[in-house]
Amino acid sequence: MTEPTVAPPSTAPTTIGPVRLELPPQSVMSRVARLTATGVASLAGFTIEEIDDISVMVSEVMVALVEHGAQSTIVVTFDVADDCFTVRGATNIADFRLDHPDLALCRTVLAAVSTRHGIEGTSARAEIWASLQQHES
Amino acid sequence: MDANRNFLTTEAADDGTIVVAGDIDMAGGPIVEQALQARESELQASGGGDIVVDLTGVHFMDSSGLRSMLAAARLAAARQAALELRSVGPEIIRLLEITGTIDQFTIASRRD
Predict the structure, then answer these.
(1) Is pTM, for the whole model, over 0.80?
(2) pLDDT tens-digit map of A72-114
(3) Distance between CA atoms of A35 and A137, rounded to whole angstroms?
(4) Which of A35, A55, B15, B86 has the most CB atoms in a 10 Å sphere around its CB?
(5) Distance CA A97, CA B66 (A)
(6) Which domain holds residue A63?
(7) Does residue A56 form part of some domain?
């Protein structure tokens, strides 16, 4: 019987993605997005605490797009570059009010858990993005 | 098939405590809200009291889930009662602090 071997510590990739999802505008799809995001972040070597924040970040992006979008396909991308995880979500919009109280709550949470975030768009399409810079270990 | 069954459950303990397990997010929030509204109706009919929620099995909540909890807290507050949260994890406490809503709830106990 051979002795079990221990794999050498792997070096997390410095660049990942973009990983792109096209999701139907359903609330449960937030979980699909979170699972994918946490997988990407884990692969890139983010800590458990950082992954928790990324999970919230992604969920808030999905809340904004599912609840305030025009019920069309949501495109979400994840990428890691320069130790920074970024989620971008976009969908068509009909009546997207930045001052809606629910959206304000969403942005309050995004501001707290991300390093930077933003909402951009036109009258027909909105994009929400949020980034988290990895802490130096 | 209800996909939420795999991710969130609510059940009422013998003492009326609502025990929640799973993610209170955009999909789970309405399920929790429904359970809390049912408890609210029971309490209104039986003379009052606080709504008690056990969050031992909850490790994730987002702003949409928080809105569901806040809706129940406001209903309870309207009859001079409280929404009491037990075994609240650090992730949930953080969300309540971030959003400045922690005072809307009675935090009976926390867990690590």
Answers:
(1) yes
(2) 999 999 999 999 999 999 999 987 788 888 889 999 999 999 9
(3) 24
(4) A55
(5) 20
(6) 16-133
(7) yes
